[in-house]
Amino acid sequence: MTVRIKIDFVSDVSCPWCAVGLSSLELALARLDGEIQAEIHFQPFELNPDMPPEGQDTVERLARKYNMTPEQVRQNGEAITARGREVGFTFNMDKRTHTYNTFDAHRLLHWAHLEGHQLALKHALLKAYFTDGENPSAPEVLIRLCHESGLNAQRAREILGSDEYAADVRERERFYAKQGVNAVPAIIINDKHLIQGGQPPEVFEGALRQAAGATA
Questions:
Q1: Dihedral sign, Cα of residue 189, residue 195, residue 198, residue 200
Q2: Which of 40, 156, 163, 185 could share a disulfide with 21, CB 3.0–4.6 Å?
Q3: Residue 167: pLDDT above 80?
Q4: Which residues have C-beta within 8 Å of that of residue 145, sequence separation ≥ 6?
């Protein structure tokens, strides 16, 4: 019997460990195909809500934020790249020169959920930023990614030209902050089981089996 479970994946599209965590989670779900059917909801979290529109140099930002040297930032990037490679995600850290505000991306992800294309857009946003080095706050990039993800480009343009879904995203951000989520990724299974960080597939697989057993 296939057990249905709900997964809330709290993350930011500028978070490398969120890309690792999502790829790892999907590997675990592939291993459990036929046993577990998961409905994934991507929930918003902004790592850099104060980011100016032009963005900031990534190395400078990370060095200042985490009190690291540029060399330590580079080494950390290499470690993340290796972890990504293990789960099938490609990082090109040399292309990710700047860090940007992601609020508009979250607004579009909220809309994409309503339209049934949220997973496709999430994948597109992560690839655009971490693999291709694109700006996930640039309207034309966002509109193109929406179109490539099966969404209406003109509708995406209209949303970006308004404050539509802004209140919804803020509400979701406040909700998870009140639940104690202050770092991402945070993966919540069936509103009960919390997994934090870009864990290996085996960790997700074990947690999913446990949640499925409790549900059954």
A1: negative
A2: 185
A3: yes
A4: 121, 124, 125, 128
| Model pLDDT for residues 104-132, shown as the tens digit of each residue | 999 999 999 999 999 999 999 999 999 99
Question: C-alpha 6: how far from its chain's center?
Answer: 17
Distance CA 128, CA 212 (A): 33
Predicted confidence (pLDDT) at residue 214 exceeds the cutoff of 90: no
3-state helix, strand, coil in the chain (%, to 5): 55, 15, 30
Note the pLDDT of residue 199. 97
197: left (phi over 0), alpha (psi -120 to 50) or beta: left
Are the beta carbons of 145 and 124 closer than 8 angstroms? Answer: yes
pTM (whole model) above 0.90: yes
Domains of the chain (ranges; CATH) run 3-215 (3.40.30.10)
- The enclosing H or E element of 124 equals helix 118-126
Which SS3 state, helix, strand or coil, does residue 189 take?
A: strand
Residue with tokens 């879904």: 165
